Structures are given as C-alpha cells and as structure tokens.
Amino acid sequence: MPLTSTSWPIARKALTSALGRVPDVAFVHALLDATGGVEPLIHALTEDLMDLPPGQVVPEAGRVAAVRMADGPRLARAVAHVADHIDDELLPVALLLSIATGTVPCERLAGLARVPSSRLDRCAAVLAEHGLVDNDAMPVRFRHAPARRRLAARLLDRLVESPRWSAVQIWLLHLFEGATDTPPESPDPWVLARLRAAVRRRLDAPSRLLLAEQLCWVGQGGAALSLLRGPLPSDADAASFHSVRTLIRCLYPGELGTPPAPTAGTWNGIGDTPPLTVATEALAAALNGMPAYEVAPRAEWALTALELGPRTFHGALAAIWALLHADRLESAATWSRRLAQQARRSSGFAWQSLFLTIQATVERQLGSLKASVRHNALALELAAEQFATSPWRLVIEWSRLVATLRHDSEVLDRVAVEPPPTSALWLYHRYARGQVHLTAGRHAEAHADFIACGNALKSWRMDNSVVVLWRSGAAYALAASGDRHAGLALALEEIRLARACAAPRVLGISLRRAAALADSPFRLDLLRESALVHENAGARIELAYTLCDTGVEQLRCSDRQRGRATLTTALRLAEECADTELEARIRGYLADAGLGERAGRTAATALTASQKRVALLAMAGRSNRDIAGELFLTVSTVEQHLTQIYRKLGISRRTELTHLPAELLQPPELGGVDGI
C-alpha cells in the first residue's frame, strides 16, 4: 500500500491550503483513504473537492462524504496519466479490475479474462502503487468510485480497437449500459453498437448468464432479459437459463409481467426437476397468489438441495423470497442466517449484504427489532463501498426500505434514487412512501401512492395480498378523508385475497386493519381472529399491535378488566420486541384508563426495601460509590441492585429514575430489613 510516513503531512498541508485553516482529522483520513497517500491524487482530489457546489460540502462530517463524491478535471487527468502508462499486456486485466472489482472474486475474474492469477495480482499491485486500489483488502477494492469509473472509461479508449478483448465485453456493457449513473466519459454510439454485437456473437452461454445477472442487479431488467431471449445456445444449461429468466421477471415484473404460476402438471411432484427451477417457480407461484402451504415446502426443499455458489445464488435468493411471501417466518429466519454465514465464508460481500437484509426483514416481522436494526446496519456497511456503481446498489436501497417501513420519513428522504419503475423494489419504495405520508397525515398523497401500487400490481398480473397490502393502506387514507364505507370495502376485499393466499401474517394484518374501519359490533371478532393467526404465525410484533387495538376496543365497550389485561399483555410483548413507539402508546392508553399510577405502584412494590433505598439515592444523583458508602454496601452489590431495579421498573438507564414519582419508591421504616 502506498501510504508512507509523509502521506499524512502532505494531505494535511493540501487541505489546509485549500480551506485556509487546519482540517478536521476525519477529513484528512478520508482523503488518505481515497488516494492511498499518493501525492498527485491527493492534490487532484483536494482541488476538485473545492469546486463542489457549497450545498454539497458542509463542515465537517459532510466533507468526509464529499471526498467520496469528488470527481472533476484534475482527477480525470491524474487517472488518465495512470491509464496511459499501464503495460499493454495488463490492459484487459486492468479494465476488468476497474469494472468488476468488489463484485466478483478475483479468482473468477482471472477465469473470465483467461489469464493467470499472477497477472491479475501484478495488475492490482500496479494500480495500488498509483493509489487507485487498496491491495490489502479482501477482495481487492478501488479506493475511490469516481476514479474507478474514470479509469474504466480511459482504458476502453485504448482497448476497443484491440483484438484481445474477447472476454472483457461482458463488463463493458455492465459499465456503459448496466449502470444507472451516466458514465463520466460515454463512448461514441458506434462503440456501444460494437459492444452489443459482440455480446450476441462472441459470448458463450455461461457468460451470457453472468452478464444477465449483473445487468439485473444494476437495475437493467429489460437488458438482462434481452440476453436470455431467443433460441438457447448449444452449450446452454436449459435449467439455468429458465431459472435466471424467471427470477429476473419476478424482480422486474414491469418488463414482461410476472411469470405465470406453474401448472398442475409441473407443480405436483418434484421428481427430477432441478433445484434451481423449483426455487424460482416457487417464487413465481407465491407472487401469483398460490396458497402458502403449497409454496413453502417447495422453497424449503430447494434450499436444502442447493449449495450456495456463483451458479446457485439466484436460486437461493428466489427460494428464501418465496418463504417470506409465504409467511414462513421461522424457516426464513433460519435460512437467511445460514446463507449469510455461507456468504461470509465465500467472501461474497454482495451476497452477504443481501441475505443480512433479508434476515433483518424477517427479524422485524418476528418482533426482534434490535437484531433487525443491527443486521440492517451491517448490510449497509458491507455494501456502502460500492454504492451507486455496482450490483449492490439495489441491495442498499432495499436495506434502507427496511427502515422506512418503520415509518421513518428521514430514512425515506435519504434514498438517493427511486428504483426502476419496472422493478419490484419500486413497488416497495412507493408503498413505504405511502405509509410515511399516512403517518404524517398527508392522506391525499398516501392514497395516490397506494393506488399507484395497486395499478402496478394489476398491470403486472400479481395483484394479491402477499406482495404489499395496498388496499388497506388506501382504505385508511379514504377513511381519514371522510369516505369510511369505500375504505371498508377495500379492506374487506383485502381479507378475501389474504385468505386465498393462506399467508397467516398477511391475513392477520388485513383483519386488524379492517377492524379499525368496521362498525363496533364486528371489531372485536376481527381482532380476535387477527390475534389468533398472528400467534400461530409467530409474528410477535404484529400480535402486540393487534392486542393493543383489542384492549382499546374492550375499554371502549366498558369491559375495563379485560381491556386492562389485554393492554398489559400487549405492553409486555412490545417491551420484549423493543418497540418503544408502541410501548409509549400502550402506556398512554393504560394511563387514560386510570391504570397508569396503579401499574407504577405494582412495579414499585416488586422492589425490595434495599433496592428502594438504592433507587432513591440514585434518583438524588449519588454515584454508585457514594451509594455504597452511605448504605454500607460494596459497589458491586449496588450495581447488582440497579440492574434488578431497571428490570423490574422496565427502564434501561439511571436518568429514567427521575421520571418516577419518589413516593412510589419510598421504602418502609428502617426497622423492617429484608434480605439483600
């Protein structure tokens, strides 16, 4: 790695000169990470950074992000100098590295380029010497995404007339047609025409499949499908072509519509059907609304039969996605965890990021919100290096959408680019946006988003409740706008479709949402059925929401004893799931019902006299050491008491003790001593 003892002062001096003051340490680190400490790149990026519009550079944390975006004429000249001095022998390998590094393991790149791994390693070392590549990372990564694109464009100019690029054209289309961003130096139209012709004339079947998958992940569903149309090549594996084509149509149903559900003749009995075919057909069946009890066993069989690898990744993805739509949450959690572990061992960051995202989604549905947030953050971290320039782009968007479904409008605003309108991700994005609008009280905007989801699903021939619950969302928006009867009709239609799909979590949510719009005599019946199906499905967080609504309805019907008991159960579930928003809402209902103070007294009486004394002193601001000295205890004993106090009172830190009335913690006369 080119970082030396002089790299830091050079970067610091360059930034100080440009800013007119000493830069933040993190800013210097970001510049060194993007340039590898190579002086020409340091000066090029610094000068280009200062040319960014003022709105894009904010002190100081924003400058760190800006370093990753800086892409101007100085960087172009610096990278062009590197490209022009690469040995002709390394030219195809350098182009491959500049396009595929980070998305495909280096050993596979060597096979694609039909060159020894040693040559690829030597090329990576040359690029590392010039600060473009971090050769110590596994796999090798480019330090700066704009520099990577600049290098690829420059190398294309040198290589396009060369006869030695027969395996490289896979990645040329990936760069100039697959990426959603416009390349910084687009080639002339005749170059693109030559590239397209080369794909069909010179690519073998495995290369066509690989290119189709890459185009799929960067948002080019139509281009991916075009590679798989027509007669199969003589060396093609029919099952692989069929499975990849089916998955791409499931991911981009706006291109040709979702694949039709398997017919009875092909669906009954697995027989000798390849696992890849079983996996992708299970997903197509789920999206077509086939009952979950028929979809889930085939998806699980496919996952058992498949071994994760480059040729089976798409099959594993399809099968676990089918399990998600079938609401087999425990099974989906087990398989997503296992596949993420396998991806980590195979150094597939993109795969690991995707399976971690699925794991986070399942954990959220099961009610493990803390684990969901943790795995979602890890998925984002793994994918962040390649944002907007690689197949991980849609993974990142999907990861962020996991958070938006928690009604976080700030996260939704940070989604950089709306997914392609023909993709399933666009549907999830629009649905999440509708949920945010609904929560914010923007009912007309919410209704428009939900109706857009419905129109897309109908045109894609996959209008059922397992994809998104757009009808109940539109129903809420209509009811809030004053048309409750039209909203209730939509909600009841959603229940009918959910019963047909036999997906329990989806049915439970539909029942709960319909109950909110139904007349009073029918609400409790709908809520009881919702609670039953959620409990059977293991969807704890949805069960907590249903019990909350049930308790409120029981209180409204003057059944105070049952209402309080139901709300207390809902509160316990919300606490276990760490859903603080729902927790606060339930506590509010309990307080309005006159149970808030009684609940506080019940919690306080669960404390021993010694624990109450410790709690009172902690409320007064005493440190653990002060409390120990005053009560003649060890510091360790005080810490143990505080742990028990937090658990019994349902709090997590000392500062929350100040919100409890002191009289609830008042200990008895000192004559009554309990065991410590």
From TrEMBL:
Keywords: DNA-binding, Transcription, Transcription regulation. Residues 600-665 form the HTH luxR-type domain. Coiled coil: none annotated. InterPro entries: Sig_transdc_resp-reg_C-effctor, Tscrpt_reg_LuxR_C, WH-like_DNA-bd_sf. Pfam families: GerE. It comes from the Bacteria. This is LuxR C-terminal-related transcriptional regulator. The lineage of its organism: Bacteria, Bacillati, Actinomycetota, Actinomycetes, Kitasatosporales.
